UniProtKB/TrEMBL annotation:
The protein's name: Adenylate-forming reductase
Lineage: Eukaryota, Fungi, Dikarya, Ascomycota, Pezizomycotina
Spans annotated as Disordered: 1-21
Cross-referenced PANTHER family: TRANSMEMBRANE PROTEIN (PTHR33927:SF1)
Annotated TM spans: 110-130, 136-152, 219-241, 256-275, 295-315
Origin species: Lachnellula suecica
Top-level lineage group: Eukaryota
Keywords: Membrane, Transmembrane, Transmembrane helix
Record-linked InterPro entries: Adenylate-forming_domain
Amino acid sequence: MTSPWPHIEVTPSGGSQDLDAAEKGVYDNTQSLATLPPLADPKKTMIHSESFLSPMSPLHEGITPSSSVPVLSLSPSPEKQANKAAVPEIGPLRRRWILFQLWFNTYRKFFTFVTMLNLAGIIMASLSRFPYAEKHLGALVLGNLLTAILMRNELFLRCLYTIAIYGLRSWAPVSIKLAATSVLQHVGGVHSGCAISGAAWLVFKVVDIIRHRNIQPSAVIATGIVTNLMIIISVLSAYPWVRNYHHNVFEGYHRFIGWLGLAATWSFVILGNQYDLNEGRWRANANSLISTQELWFAVFMTVFVLIPWCTLRKVNVEVEVPSPKVAVLRFDRGIQQGLLGRISRTSIMEYHAFGIISEGRHSPYHYMICGVQGDFTKSLVADPPKAVWTREMKFAGVGHASAMFKRGIRICTGTGIGAALSTCIQDPNWFLIWIGSDQEKTFGPTIAGLIHNNIPPERMILWDSKQRGGRPDTMQLLKETWDSFGAEVIFITSNMKGNDEMMQGCRAVTDLDT
């Protein structure tokens, strides 16, 4: 039996600021998205949710709906009320099962699979049951580290999104599109799993070298230990608590120690392969080095680390400060929907990512909304810059995958509008629901104009919780919009609390077998 509301899969963990913070326009963190499967009609289907965790797009908090803006009734007629399926009460066992499913999302599934697979390999290698590892232990280290780098590389991810969008858009059922979107959103699980696994394989390799130190040159042992320390420090600095609450510490250690680790890796690879263990001497030529897998893994690691930095530019910016809570940054050139940009006052440190708002590729401008939260965003309001550093190669957020779907709903709260607005501006088949507090006053006329000049009233609901005396019943709002707009997918962009509330509400009325 098909349930009226979908099955859900959630985004990974992160900061959990409450909805009030998001609605006030101060939530400055982003992450990616989660998925929710089929809805009422089997022909319509699923929900995708996006929760922001890292410094990203602080969004315009909404514009008070005027009388011309259709607002879906939250007090339906008795006939409609009789036909509307209420959210049922759920028992404690099912509630725990729902929470577990939301927690064990695709990110954690990827992470678990990758780490368990590598752990099995390490155990097999330690028992001398893994012949490949005996001959190519370094390749297992660098193969994992290269994969970890690729999963966070702008160019590689843009290629993955392009393949998924153009490969699935015209023929694939929504279930397959949602699965692909969930994979794209949660590749961070592969990144984390491969980074930890690469460090574990490196420890195993260095321990193996130390065990045979009587035939190993001291230079190889020393570079192996240094490389190990660098990689382990870089991995530990990315622990979520450090990343979320001590961003500059994370960025400094993860980036600079990571770069030193890459340099040490080159030394380790070259020295390790240039020493002939059988003859006990250094090789005079590099022929054997060129043919090793480890060298080419190191080459590609270096190339993919350098590519984003090759697009680094200092660009002019105009900053509008409509309120003490928000800075709206305007840059030259238009950009396609669903992309995010990193900006900084310096060339190599303290980069923060924000959602990009643009009317299209041919528009003269694109915008970022920066909600005041940390020192960086406070400085944008207190001391607006004339220019900032940015990478011209923007990275794809999960909202970029909305191009796969024919018709959908973007619901966002507070600053989440920054990640959601471009989709609804550039694609007439997307409906915008924006819930925020005192939106026009907080975010100013620029964002208000972008919304009202590009999205017709019948394609948006702007809910000002200050004027309306509180937040709406989001589940009923989604249900009614879903039915009236004929959507096949819903993208939820909120903080963790708002995201979880909406997904748990959907899951509570879902047939878990669908």
